[in-house]
Specification:
Blueprint lengths: L1 E2 L2 E2 L11 E7 L12 H13 L3 H13 L5 H12 L9 H11 L9 H13 L7 H11 L3 H10 L6 H18 L5 H8 L17 H29 L1 H38 L14 H16 L7 H7 L1 H15 L10 H17 L13 H28 L2 H63 L3 H23 L8 E8 L3 E6 L5 E2 L1 E10 L2 E10 L4 E10 L4 E9 L3 E8 L5 E7 L11 H11 L2 H14 L1 H6 L13
Parallel strand pairs: 3-5
Antiparallel strand pairs: 1-2, 4-7, 5-6, 7-8, 8-9, 10-11, 11-12
Helix pairs in contact: 1-2, 2-3, 3-5, 5-6, 8-18, 10-11, 10-16, 10-17, 11-16, 11-17, 12-13, 12-14, 12-15, 16-17
Length: about 650
């Protein structure tokens, strides 16, 4: 789990940590309405191209051109998309013909910077020999383009610009990569890309009120009490009106006093005692330590955040022990509120962190256990209530005495029966009335507490979501950083082997996830990883040099580099294994060593949105990994050896000339 820039992970002894977290961000970056105009499709295609998804960019821009949106700017991006992450041998015959046709259209476009950029692009494609005077002239025109156009050509033409031409541009590219690789606060922001979109705030609603049931049974008991009390009062008035009036007034006052103070006493003794006996969260029960996986993950998350949000004067373990009942109640609440299929605890961590900080802050204010340690009714309230009940009892006896003194035996018998009729239903009516009033008060208080908790959580949610929306890197930023990392890695390998681009026939770089990793993507885009494995293949006249390294994307640090060299005839076969619920594996078989399996990508079927196509997303991710070009290159070498290299020598490839 992430806490700022820190990462917390736990695994049992002997276990292997694979994917720590993964998320798909909802976004309209690549969203295209069915009735979108050619202009809109072109703009989405450009976004695909800038974000490292050239296969989708080709489709979108080609569609825009087919529907009449064809300018020098559109055609320029179409050429970039056609050649991005591809060498000439990756192009079909039809695609080569389309490029040749496009090179003859340059004259038809209006003069301007985009026409000049398109002309320079085709002139660069026509030059694969060592730098000479003509090459120098084209390079000067390239440098005169705007930074966006110039960088776009160099980045997307990476696999078709070789030899002296690329040597002339490489130093500038390396400097740009050095300057941009940690730009825009990369180290401080990358982790937010892999944070899942937080799920909305929820709080435990108030318990259902039982006041209605109590009120439904109240009229019958109240009626019987009124009949009995009225009968006793009438009999006393008949016997001695003056004394009876005084006694009835005192009894009425005592009854009202007992009701007033008894209501508060009843509520404190019954409702708050029941609430405090469970926890400080209404009707939350302590979770079973053997709960389901979601509950256990919630508990571990609470333990982590409570141990990292410790008030002054407490050690982490001491604070965990001090708040064990609070955490158990909160675990139960979160488990009940968010236990849904496919809801990851990572999406609730913002709330767990907020609750841990809230517990720390309330402890600092001295109000951590306010709801659990609520003071009971005061002795004064209890004394007044008891005194009023005693007075009521005395007045009842006094009324009986008045009846006995001024009436015959029959009236006395009727008075005793009236007292009995009033007492038992009256007691039941009093309990029902107190329960109804207590429930109304409890419901009002719990409703207020619920609204306050929900408002506080809503504020915390909005704060966290706003932070993520502001800090989360955009797709172009993520792609730029990754491109810089690849460029600097290639540069380091070239310098290690003391090679220049003139010495290379071709090259390819395979970018795959390195476990353990977190991964995330924008809907419709490729997976991006917190840890990568870069595998570079340099093809020279002497054979293949393979260099691999693992790479932490958050801080741009590399480690675990491995190198191997082999002749063309040493690569005996290349195989691809596709397993629907596992992913793609690339297997290299050498004649002088064991087969090597490379996990190109993990499966993501369960992470696809309903409107996403499995094959389309798989193609996007394979292209982003550089798999298509790498596989075709290695497959060709394994099949034909050095013959394949000779047939694909840059000097023998077709050239393109922009017609004037």
């Amino acid at each position: 789990m992430n806490d700022g820039s820190a990462t917390h992970n736990s695994a049992a002894y002997g276990s292997t940590v694979g994917i720590q977290a993964e998320t798909v961000h909802n976004s309209n970056v690549y969203f295209v309405q069915p009735d979108a105009s050619p202009q809109e499709k072109y703009e989405v295609g450009v976004r695909f191209l800038e974000d490292g998804v050239p296969s989708r960019a080709r489709d979108m821009i080609s569609d825009a051109i087919a529907h009449g949106h064809d300018t020098a700017e559109v055609r320029f991006h179409w050429v970039l998309a056609m050649l991005s992450a591809r060498a000439y041998h990756d192009l079909s015959t039809e695609e080569l013909q389309r490029l040749h046709h496009a090179s003859g259209l340059v004259r038809n476009y209006a003069d301007g910077e985009w026409r000049e950029a398109l002309r320079v692009a085709f002139e660069l494609l026509a030059m694969f020999s060592t730098a000479d005077g003509e090459t120098g002239r084209v390079l000067e025109r390239l440098r005169a383009l705007s930074p966006r156009q110039r960088d776009g050509i160099f980045h997307h033409f990476d696999l078709v610009l070789t030899g002296g031409l690329k040597d002339s541009l490489w130093a500038e590219n390396r400097e740009r990569a050095e300057a941009a690789r940690l730009s825009n606060g990369r180290v401080q922001r990358v982790w937010t890309y892999f944070e899942p979109d937080p799920i909305g705030p929820r709080a435990m609603p108030p318990r259902l009120s039982t006041a209605a049931a109590a009120q439904a049974a109240l009229p019958v008991r109240t009626g019987m009490f009124v009949v009995g009390a009225a009968s006793l009062g009438i009999l006393a008035l008949l016997a001695d009106p003056v004394a009876a009036v005084v006694e009835l007034l005192i009894a009425l006052g005592a009854g009202l006093t007992a009701a007033h103070f008894g209501r508060s006493w009843w509520y404190e003794e019954h409702q708050l005692k029941a609430k405090g006996g469970e926890s400080f969260i209404p009707h939350a029960r302590e979770p079973d330590s053997t709960g389901d996986g979601f509950t256990n993950r919630v508990r571990h998350s609470f333990d982590y955040y409570f141990s990292s949000r410790v008030p002054p004067g407490f050690a982490p373990q001491e604070w965990l022990g001090h708040t064990v009942h609070i955490r158990n109640a909160l675990v139960a609440e979160i488990a009940v509120l968010y236990r849904e299929s496919r809801i990851s605890v990572d999406r609730v961590n913002w709330l767990i962190r907020h609750l841990a900080e809230d517990a720390r802050d309330r402890h600092n204010r001295g109000s951590l256990f306010d709801l659990r340690h609520r003071k009971p009714a005061s002795a004064f309230v209890k004394a007044l209530c008891v005194a009023a009940l005693i007075v009521l009892g005395i007045m009842t006896l006094a009324l009986l005495g008045t009846v006995a003194a001024g009436a015959d035996r029959a009236h006395l018998t009727m008075a005793v029966v009236a007292v009995a009729v009033a007492f038992w239903p009256g007691r039941a009516a009093a309990c029902l009335w107190l329960e109804a009033r207590s429930e109304e008060r409890r419901l009002a208080e719990e409703t207020q507490e619920y609204q306050e908790r929900l408002a506080a959580r809503q504020a915390a949610y909005q704060k966290w979501k706003s932070f993520l929306d502001t800090a989360r890197p955009s797709e172009p930023e993520m792609e730029t950083w990754l491109t810089c990392d690849k460029s600097l890695f290639v540069d380091e390998v070239l310098r290690h082997y003391q090679l220049t681009w003139r010495d290379l026939i071709t090259h390819t770089i395979l970018v795959t996830p390195a476990r353990p990793y977190k991964r995330g993507r924008v809907k419709g885009g490729p997976w991006r990883y917190s840890r990568y494995s870069f595998r570079l293949f340099l093809v020279t006249q002497d054979g293949v040099r393979e260099v691999s390294t693992e790479f932490d994307f958050a801080d741009a640090k590399r480690g675990g580099e491995q190198r191997s060299n082999y002749r063309f005839d040493a690569l005996s076969s290349v195989q691809v294994t596709e397993r629907a619920y596992v992913g793609y594996d690339l297997e290299l078989v050498l004649t002088n060593g064991p087969a090597r399996s490379i996990r190109v990508k993990d499966a993501e079927t369960h992470q696809l949105a309903p409107d996403e196509n499995v094959q389309e997303i798989a193609e996007i991710n394979l292209n982003a990994a550089g798999f298509i070009h790498t596989f075709r290159l290695l497959e060709g070498i394994a099949a034909d050896g050095k013959g394949w290299i000779e047939r694909n020598n840059p000097n023998n490839l077709p050239s393109f000339h922009a017609a004037d």
